[in-house]
Amino acid sequence: MEKHKREDKIIDQVINTWKVHNNINLYLLSEIPKKGLEAVPARSKGRNVASQFLHMNRVRLGWLHYHTTGKRPRLSAGGKMAYPVRKELIKSFRVSGAAVEAFIGKALCGEAKTRAFSTGAIRWMGYLISHESHHRGQIVLALKQNGMRLHENVSLHGLWGKWIWGH
Questions:
Q1: Taking the mean position of all CA atoms in its chain, how far away is CA 122?
Q2: The pTM is what?
Q3: From CA 66, how far away is CA 79, in angstroms rounded?
Q4: With 160 labelled, which of 20, 25, 96, 139 sits at a CA distance of 20 to 30 A?
Q5: What is the DSSP string of 61-129?
Q6: CB of 44 closer than 8 Å to CB of 144
Q7: Between 121-145 and 86-108, two packed helices, what is the crossing angle to 10 degrees?
Q8: Looking at residues 161-167, what average pLDDT do you find?
């Protein structure tokens, strides 16, 4: 197999990994009961579920801004979008997910460069996936602690099965 064909296949796998991850976030967001967006982990003064999703999205956008401009973004404390509704979050995750996907694709082809991640776009993507997975865990815990445990099909087949079987 020619070198560029192998590289194209690897790039496709990396991009697909990001897409699966983003789809898991969107799936979880769609399966949370409406009242669940307000859930906060027990004995926590932390973010509610909606704010956790908002934070995840802002981190994506902040890094994209930094990679493309070299300047740190100015992120507001929340303002009007402090407690967004599901529809706004889904739209935001679709838009930022596509933007991350496009940036990773460009970076892997040498058309863009990540900043602060010495080995490049795949390492940055790994950071984003790790960060967002941490928050997914916090979200699921907040739901459980507030009596809104996700159905087994959601957690097993949706959150884990998408990685394993691709559904």
A1: 15
A2: 0.88
A3: 22
A4: 96
A5: HHHHHHHHHSS-----S-GGGSS--HHHHHHHHHHHHHHHHHHHHHHHTTSS--SS-TT-HHHHHHHHH
A6: no
A7: 160
A8: 77
Tokens of 24: 């898991």
Separation of alpha carbons 132 and 155, rounded Å: 16
Residue 79 has pLDDT above 90, yes or no: no
Q: What integer is the mean pLDDT of 33-47?
A: 88
* pLDDT over 50 at 111, yes or no: yes
Q: Which helix (H) or strand (E) holds 16?
A: helix 3-31
CATH of the domain at 157: 1.20.120
Which DSSP helix (H) or strand (E) runs through 28?
A: helix 3-31
Those residues whose C-beta lies under 8 Å from the C-beta of residue 7, and which sit 6 or more positions away, are none
pLDDT value of position 3: 63
**Domain, as residue range, for 27:** 3-164
Q: Count how many domains the chain has.
A: 1
Residue 1 has pLDDT above 60, yes or no: no
Q: How far apart are CA 162 and CA 34, in angstroms?
A: 23
Q: CA distances (Å), 22 to each of 37, 45, 60, in order?
A: 18, 27, 11
Residue that is written with structure tokens 């560029």 in the block: 4
**Of the candidates 157, 142, 151, which has an alpha carbon nearest to the alpha carbon of residue 41?**
142
| Residue type at 88 in one-letter notation | E
